Amino acid sequence: MDLFVSGFAAFVIVLVLLAIVIVFMGVTIVPQGYQYTVERFGRYTKSLQPGLGLIIPFIDRIGTKVNMMEQVLDIPTQEVISRDNAMVQVDGILFFQVLDAAKSTYEVRDLERAIQNLAQTNLRTVLGSMDLDAALSQRDSINVKLLNVIDQASTPWGLKVTRVEIKDITPPLDLVEAMGRQMKAERLKRAVILEAEGVRQSEILKAEGEKKSAILEAEGRREAAFRDAEARERSAEAEAKATHDVSEAIAAGDIQSINYFVAQKYTEAMKEIGMARNSKVVLMPMEASALVGSLGGIGAIAQEVFGGTGGKSSSGNRSTTGSVPNSE
Amino acid sequence: MAEEFLTWVTGLEYWGWWILAVVLIILEVFAPSTLFLWLGISAGVVGVVAWMFPDLLWEYEWTIFAFVSVISIVASRIFFKKNPGVIDNQTLNRRGVQYIGRQFVLTESIRNGRGKIHVDDTQWAVEGPDMEVGEDVVVTGSDGTILIVEPKQ
Predict the structure, then answer these.
(1) Where are the alpha helices (DSSP H) in B53-145?
(2) pLDDT band per the 50, 70, 90 thresholds, residue B88
């Protein structure tokens, strides 16, 4: 079929096609979280921000679609020799964010590989300069060191490395076992020391207790002795006073009253002697008349009381005793 | 087929243009690449023109369609630049800008215009007048991975 299209009509059709192509190529929708680099004849000119972006078709070209979100990068497991020659397996994780789309695209060829290798080599450097114990216990400082180095190194690439963290440090199995044994030994040592300390403390306490009790006992004895002495002193004083009182009374009164008491005692004593069983000793007054004499003293008192002739002192208030063994 | 297409193209009435516009906008809904939208807008505009000048040549109509397609993009771009509307989070994905106005303590003296501050569990390089460690600074701007600071007044 013959289809005639005038030149103008053909031009219009081409024009429409061109418009559609321009719309297709010139409008770029950049999603949030991304920036697109724009190259004019191959040379970088600008980065398209999120939203509606326009480029001039045929002249401009979208270069790279750069992710501007913070991203996580695994630092793969690798073997590192620590300063004290322990072979450990280390892996980590790294957070970074592209802040300059152009630099991250054109300053470095393979960004992720570059960061990964940088992190790996620096991990080796940092851990290689530490003892195993330090590496296991000072992760914070390791992280800070790594962050400093990697962040500075990646600055020319328009990156901000926000965190570098060591995930796992795995020493070889036999080393782990040895560490476990060491820990157990440490704990055992502590336990034994503590027990010994306990025993020592208890012994000291016991000895102190004994010492205290001995001291207290001695003090008690001393106190008692003091009191005893005092009691003796008091009784002696009392006796002296009594004697004094008696002698004063005698001096004031009559001698015969004494005689009465003496005679009483005398007779009582005689009765006691008489009652003593199986006594081999018999106490008898030298003069039997002395007993009678003492009775005479009583008589004298009676006379004195009932107004008779007084003042007659009885002879022989002394009673001499002698022991006469029973001759069988 | 081609003849039919050509008669359809040449014989578009104003309501034809509007149908085209609606169809294009529906396409835009299903394939959101903001591509058919401009063509749809353009078709709508041509529909208005065709309604005002019913005996306009179809070639002119399609020329208008082509031009308006391109112009509408540029116009909308200019319009959105002037009226960005309400954007909730201006600092989204702009790490450095988020810190503007905040105060920090220098962890490394600023020598020859470069120093360091400690920001939320990470370090940032800063640019500013020479200062000693421990002094307070205020972030006033950001340049890629470097924050621009001034001494706290």
Answers:
(1) 58-82, 95-98
(2) confident
| Burial of A44 (C-beta count, 10 Å sphere; 0-12/13-18/19+) | middle
List chain B residues with CB under 8 Å of A152: 125
Nearest to A27 among B35, B42, B65 (CB): B35
DSSP strands (E only) in chain A = 27-30, 34-40, 43-48, 51-54, 60-67, 70-81, 87-98, 159-170, 281-285, 321-325
Q: Which of B79, B93, B121 to mutate to test the interface with A (most CBs of A within 10 A)?
A: B93
Nearest to B122 among A8, A100, A163 (CB): A163
B139 DSSP β-pair partners = B149
pLDDT digits (tens, 9 = 90+) for B18-58: 888 898 888 888 876 667 888 888 888 888 888 888 777 77
Closest CB from B3, B73, B145 relative to A99: B145
Residue B58 has a pLDDT of 79
CB-based contact A22 B93, cutoff 8 Å = no
CB contact under 8 A, B38 and A158: no
A250 touches chain B (CB under 8 A): no
Mean pLDDT over each residue of chain A, to the nearest integer = 84
Instruction: Output the pTM of the full model.
Output: 0.64
Of the CA atoms within 13 Å of residue A74, those in its CB half-sphere come to 6
> Does the beta-carbon distance from A148 to B123 stay under 8 Å?
yes
Contact B139, B99 (CB under 8 A): yes
Q: A186: which 2 tokens? A: 């440490």
Between A192 and A264, residue with greater pLDDT: A192
Query: Among residues of chain A, what percentage have pLDDT more than 90?
Result: 47
Q: Do A12 and B95 touch (CB under 8 A)?
A: no
Helix H or strand E encompassing B105 = strand B103-111
B89-96: Cβ within 8 A, 24+ apart? B92/A32, B92/A33, B93/A32, B93/A33, B93/A50, B93/A68, B93/A69, B94/B142, B95/A97, B95/A99, B95/A160, B95/B142, B96/A99, B96/B141, B96/B142, B96/B143, B96/B144, B96/B145, B96/B146, B96/B147
Contact of A20 with chain B, judged by CB distance below 8 Å, is answered with yes
Average pLDDT over residues A91-102: 92
pLDDT digit string, tens, across residues A104-118: 999 999 999 999 999
Between strands B146-151 and B122-127, the pairing is parallel
